[in-house]
Amino acid sequence: MTTLTSPTDTLTRDALTVLQPGFVGTSAPDWLLRRIGEGLASVGLFGRNIASPEQLAALTAQLRAERDDVLVAIDEEGGDVTRLEVRSGSSFPGNHALGAVDDTALTRDVAAELGRRLAACGVNLNWAPSADVNSNPDNPVIGVRSFGADPLLVARHTAAYVEGLQSAGVAACTKHFPGHGDTAVDSHLDVPRIGVDPEVLRARDLAPFRAAIAAGSRAVMSAHILVPSLDAEYPATLSRRILTGILREELNYDGLIVTDGMEMQAISATYGIERGSVLAIAAGADAICVGGGLADDETVLRLRDALIAAVRTGELSEERLADAAARVRALAHWTSVSGAADRSGGAPDTEIGLVAARRALTVTRGESYAAPLTEAPFVAAFTPMANIAVGDETPWGVAAELERLLPGTQTGSFTGADAGALALAEAGERRIVAVVRDTHRHAWMAESLTTLLTARPDTIVVEMGVPQSPPTGSLHIATHGAARVCGLAAAEVITGA
Q: Could you tell me where the DSSP H helices lie in 168-296?
């Protein structure tokens, strides 16, 4: 443990305690270790911080040498959003695939195994699961991160996920309260607006959060969304009516409230991160997540000083800041006790992710379907703009798995109005496997498929997003997500493996 040469005053320690910053690199920089010694209680990890399980374990051990109960958080949803396997693709299917199977025992087992892997690396807070009801098919940021569009289905799988994850001693952080599913705007880029009545929101969007709270979710993450029927002025992250009035008082939630990333444009471009952080804590949030984009000591000091100044001017009560800090420390204590050993019992299940991905497939064989592929095909990946939450570092598709099963497989990536024609020209005489993602949201992608199928009716189509469009092709496989195991499961069907 670090010994301070001079004691840090309580107000400064509390201001540091409520921050969850990120950093750059695969080992902890000196500034971060120094702030942990001064009172910082949480650190957020991203794909840039992870090279291997062994390196991650060494990193978390380095952090705990400074403070043995530090909260080490990560955005590891499995499926499309993975940090543990950011460069290879996840060994676990995401929420939409689990919702498609609709076996809560399977969801619990997948989350428990994911939790075991996180705990083994020293991670004790996971910014997951997404409890958003994907009620808007055009949603650009949730999609396959959601268990589905049915509130009751989402609720039961959210609860199962929370139970499974926390059985391994890793705290769940259910997100994005009060629900990011009915939006057509990405809060990374702007402020989404949900124009529904409170009754609709309570029946639809809040149902999974009630289930998560009943299941004991140790944390809940707020959304940077405006819901005028609840608060016409402030987005949820900054709204006392929503965080305190609904989450605390109406839903009786007593755990940690974490903000979504404060550098996202919905907050940073409208309020600024300093003002936004003060308003969030005043509204009822307990922890400020920052570090996906701003990941340096200057950011930590800016937010620390903004909170201290707000207390000294009376804009933020010292009691509210102290209460927030106490909730952070309480969760840190829970994880230090619960994470001391794997509480879930049993041996690791290294195959559970692939088993779940196989069960999640929806396979439709068309009239022109023949036998499984035995010769190396051409894989045409129709690539949309990357979802910011997912990022563009993580590979997706079926080409790598088909190459392993059918050596000589070739692939190309296509986008835009001429994608179909370009894919046809590059494929030559080879059988085509078209890989798409959310065809219903991209007119160019749907047109490209039509071009392919008109010329080559034997084309196989693999939909790795939300399967809203009707099945097409001689063989249509909906994987309900783009995790590595989803691609493997699809390749097995294509080749009859």
A: 198-204, 207-214, 240, 265-268, 273-283
Calculate what percentage of the chain has a pLDDT beyond 90. 84
Cα distance between residue 327 and residue 306, in whole Å: 20
Give kind and range of the element (H or E) at residue 44: strand 42-45
- Per-residue pLDDT tens digits for 355-412: 999 999 999 998 888 789 999 999 999 987 665 555 667 888 999 999 999 999 999 9
Which residues are CB-contacts of 266 (< 8 A; sequence separation ≥ 6)?
A: 187, 188, 189, 190, 191, 192, 224, 225, 235
Q: Which pLDDT does position 104 carry in this prediction?
A: 98
Measured at the alpha carbon of residue 321, what is the angle toward residues 251 and 31, in degrees to the nearest 5? 120
CB neighbour class for 374 (10 Å; exposed up to 12, middle 13-18, buried from 19): exposed
Instruction: Mention every residue, 6+ apart, whose C-beta is less than 8 A from residue 87.
Output: 47, 393, 394, 395
Query: For the whole model, what pTM was predicted?
Result: 0.93
Does residue 406 sit in helix, strand or coil? coil
More confident site: 139 or 256: 256
**Residue 71 and residue 20 in contact, taking contact as beta carbons nearer than 8 Å:** yes
Instruction: Enumerate residues 6+ apart whose C-beta is below 8 A from 159.
Output: 104, 211, 212, 214, 215
Select which of 75, 182, 260, 286 is catalytic.
260
| Positive or negative torsion for Cα 313, 315, 321, 323 | positive
Q: Out of 96, 176, 188, 224, pick the active-site residue.
A: 188
* β-pair type (475-478, 362-365): antiparallel
Identify the burial level of 367 via C-beta atoms within 10 angstroms of its C-beta, where 0-12 means exposed, 13-18 middle and 19 or more buried.
Answer: exposed
**Cβ proximity of 450 and 324 under 8 Å:** no
- How many residues appear in the chain? 497
265 touches 225 (CB < 8 A) = no
Residue 205 falls in the annotated catalytic set: no
Catalytic annotation present for 188: yes
Number of C-beta neighbours around residue 151 at 10 A:
21
Nearest-5° angle of CA 36, CA 270, CA 142? 80
